[in-house]
Amino acid sequence: MKLYEYEGKQLFRKYGIPVPPGMVASSIEEAVTAAQNLGLPVVLKAQVLVGGRGKAGGIVKAETLDEVRAKASRLLGSEIRGVPVNKLLVEKAVNIEKELYLSITMDRVSARPIILASAMGGVDIEEIAKEHPEAIVKRPIDPLVGLKSYESRIIAYKLGISKDHFSTFARLLQGLYKLFVDYDAELAEINPLAITDQGLLALDSKVIVDDNSLYRHGELLTGETRAERGEMTEYEEKAAELGLAYVELDGNIGIIGNGAGLTMATMDMVSYYGGRPADFLDLGGAASHERVYKATKFLMEHPGVDVLFINIFGGITRCDEVAKGIVEAVKEVGLKKPMVVKLVGTNEEIGWKILEEVGIKVFKDMEAAAQLAVKLASGKEG
Fold first, then answer.
1. CATH 3.40.50.261 region(s) of the chain?
2. From the candidates 5, 99, 151, 189, which is the catalytic residue?
3. What does the pLDDT read at residue 272?
4. Residue 190 to residue 204: CA distance in whole angstroms
5. Active-site hit among 15, 101, 177, 246
6. Is 215 a catalytic residue?
7. DSSP bridge partners of 23
8. Which band of pLDDT confidence, cut at 50, 70 and 90, is reported for residue 40?
9. For range 270-297, the mean pLDDT
10. Catalytic site includes residue 301
11. Where in the sequence of the chain do the CATH 3.30.470.20 domains occur?
12. CA 330 to CA 77: how far, in whole Å?
């Protein structure tokens, strides 16, 4: 779950990370009131869960109340990279002397947290890594030991931070690491971390919390749906509620597979023969008939799907269980759309018989099944 900037900064305050004074506004008048309370000049920041807001015009400075009113009017209700702007963070403008980059994320290779920092703040870490890899400071953290104060000072030294700010930086980094651990974060990022005439300030926040841990962090669930937050599409959110591993794409052939590798290979095969996958939907291992039923019914009712292509290799997953789930879905919602099923593996003959009894043809060959799915989706096969 991605947090809005203002939500991340609320956590920053909780952990002693200094941020500029700010208020959230959902209307033009609220933005003006916030500017009056904070004092001019202010910065208006669109609250959307996409990167590159500044380049897209989502962060603007206002020197007067008339400017606040005009710029808030332009931002609210607009879209930043396709995501609607419903809220603004109004912050007191600060004088920036230098911008740094600081983040903690998980290193998938060592399976431990790692600090990434750079003296080149205000730029995406991907750009820094590509153009100036030598400018990135990396420091893995032993989770059994935690972050030691001397490690913070080493990072501060490598970033060229003056000794006047060493102790503040160390406290800030300790707070960021504690936040990262306490909230089961996948990423806790400050970009930029600014050196200002008021000291170090986190001018932006990017916090991503592991979805699997949200039951421990109920305060983050504000009642706004993930689709409303711009994190998921409407159908990705519905799939998540059903417990399905689903990613929506822009094609019209609904893909269901068991195992991420097989599902991606199925998508590749469809693309190879000129089709366009509508999704990635992985049933996972040992899929029960109930899970297959949910997935089949879900795609059968999806308005963007014209053809279903179900590709199963039954190892732990039993083909008869898969067939029962498909039949259950078809009996409930009807065979609204053409369906192509490739089913091989454990109890395959029982599965074939179950499907053939309701008129669903079963393939043993993935290529032949993919070709038919593409023909059906293009209207070339009756």
1. 234-375
2. 189
3. 97
4. 6
5. 101
6. no
7. 90
8. very high
9. 94
10. no
11. 96-217
12. 42
β-pairing verdict for 279-282 and 88-92 = unpaired
pLDDT of 275 strictly over 70: yes
Give residue-wise pLDDT tens across range 192-224.
Answer: 999 999 999 999 999 999 988 989 998 998 777
Closest CA to 310 of 268, 348, 359, 343: 343
CATH topology of domain 21-92: Dna Ligase; domain 1 (3.30.1490)
Class of domain 96-217: alpha beta
Q: How far apart are CA 352 and CA 344, in angstroms?
A: 9
pLDDT at 381: 62
Fold of 234-375: Rossmann fold (3.40.50)
